[in-house]
Backbone:
């Protein structure tokens, strides 16, 4: 078990990464780079969710200490939203919504539309803000 | 229903995939699907070929249930709305 201060610092590092990713997502949207916007929006959410889990003393299941996408999604939604009610229920869908649009952007021949990019960017902004308010 | 899939070895996941595709098909009758196993855990990735450029016309139909599925049963089924085939 890490000392409290170490946990808080790690959470802070992840939330700062999330804020940086969100800033990139906004810049990508403004430049009509909608695929990149979707990618950065998802990672803003992923990094913010890791910050929330670290702050709640949840550790990754992977023995190497790596956070898997599915573990972060299920633990954030199941543990922090459903059980502990630390975050509002509408945030439960954000990791799923953003990863699906990001996967389309990164791994298929289809491109993300302006409408879809606007929505994932909006969801990511709400998600990061909600966690930033709770992570010291 | 047109579903090309290679997750048939898991009957339960296959049933869940078919239910998910049926829900999308109810709104988009011409939709077709290409399904692959999830790359790292039990589940699947569904590419839904649908005539819309707004992914959320599709995702809003299925994501609440698929989110519950991951949390309660640790089964990861993802949908990508990839436009017309």
Residues:
């Amino acid at each position: 078990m890490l000392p409290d201060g170490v946990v808080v610092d790690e959470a802070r590092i992840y939330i700062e990464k999330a804020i940086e990713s969100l800033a990139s997502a906004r810049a990508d949207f403004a430049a009509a780079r909608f695929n990149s916007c979707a990618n950065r929006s998802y990672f803003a959410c992923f990094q913010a969710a890791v910050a929330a889990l670290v702050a709640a003393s949840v550790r990754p299941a992977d023995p190497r200490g790596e956070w898997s996408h599915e573990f972060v999604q299920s633990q954030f939604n199941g543990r922090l939203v459903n059980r502990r009610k630390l975050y509002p229920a509408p945030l439960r869908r954000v990791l799923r919504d953003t990863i699906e649009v990001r996967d389309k952007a990164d791994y298929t021949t289809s491109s993300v539309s302006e409408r879809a990019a606007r929505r994932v960017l909006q969801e990511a902004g709400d998600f990061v803000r909600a966690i930033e308010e709770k992570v010291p | 229903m047109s579903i090309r899939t290679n997750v048939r070895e898991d009957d339960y996941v296959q049933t869940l995939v078919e239910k998910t595709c049926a829900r999308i098909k109810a709104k988009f009758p011409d939709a077709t699907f290409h399904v692959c196993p999830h790359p790292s855990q039990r589940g699947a990735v569904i590419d839904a070929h649908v005539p819309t450029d707004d992914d959320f016309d599709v995702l809003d139909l299925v994501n609440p249930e698929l989110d519950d599925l991951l949390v309660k049963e640790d089964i990861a089924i993802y949908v990508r709305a990839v436009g017309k085939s």
